[in-house]
């Protein structure tokens, strides 16, 4: 293979004509793009991109045609089958097609559906994972999805299904019992139903909840609330999607790990959010 991206110590994959690379663009901050994604952008003939892709990322593909294929809940958008077949059409024309999706293409991103269609039409593919908002977005808010003193399990769920409604196939009672931390994608529209289901399943009304909108971007906002209060607090704060919602005690870690606030010169609110007593002074 050639080395189209001149970085030392690695031979980068060559983007062949007629191929489709399905690539994650990360949660927003262009710096969270992977090197494989950058390599793909530099070689692509056409970039088919989603609504959640940070626009400045496209500048790294200056010679590529740009085709918008964003899908946002409640807004007019292309049908998924039409997007998938457009990828097939472009590849059959001998184009090097980069399908660029926010976050990771295989995490609530329909990347698996598109890959299936391409394989069924004998179009060769490459998968380039990306940082998912459910991990990277929360990290930018100072919330680790796992912490040894807090949780040994985390569950990722979507807040709506193909019909746009709260997923009927999810067993919220089982999720509530089985996972100490729950990360909800695309859940703002139905947060009242989701919160009620978790409360009915036995989660405490006072359980910490964080809502992170526009994660990792300059417009990021973080609302800290509780499970019982989150629907009203989201309305009162005027938050808009896209958002990641985290339910569980790991939200408390933001009190000590809000690194963006610390970078602004603000001190941590509590050096021991888990209530174990403050650490001893160093000798």
From TrEMBL:
Transferase as UniProt keyword: yes
InterPro entries: 4pyrrol_Mease, 4pyrrol_Methylase_sf, 4pyrrole_Mease_sub1, 4pyrrole_Mease_sub2, CobA/CysG_C, Siro_Cobalamin_biosynth, Uropor_MeTrfase_CS
Broad enzyme group: transferase
Any one GO biological process: cobalamin biosynthetic process
Domain of life of the organism encoding this protein: Bacteria
Molecular function terms, GO-annotated: uroporphyrin-III C-methyltransferase activity
Transmembrane segments: none
EC number(s) given by UniProt: 2.1.1.107
Region called Disordered, residue ranges: 262-283
Pathway where it operates: Porphyrin-containing compound metabolism; siroheme biosynthesis; precorrin-2 from uroporphyrinogen III: step 1/1; Cofactor biosynthesis; adenosylcobalamin biosynthesis; precorrin-2 from uroporphyrinogen III: step 1/1
Domain Tetrapyrrole methylase, first and last residues per copy: 20-228
Comp. bias regions, Basic and acidic residues: 266-283
Keyword field: Cobalamin biosynthesis, Methyltransferase, Porphyrin biosynthesis, S-adenosyl-L-methionine, Transferase
Protein family: Belongs to the precorrin methyltransferase family.
PANTHER family: S-ADENOSYL-L-METHIONINE-DEPENDENT UROPORPHYRINOGEN III METHYLTRANSFERASE, CHLOROPLASTIC, SIROHEME SYNTHASE-RELATED
Database matches in NCBIfam families: cobA_cysG_Cterm (TIGR01469), PRK06136.1 (NF004790)
Descriptive protein name: uroporphyrinogen-III C-methyltransferase
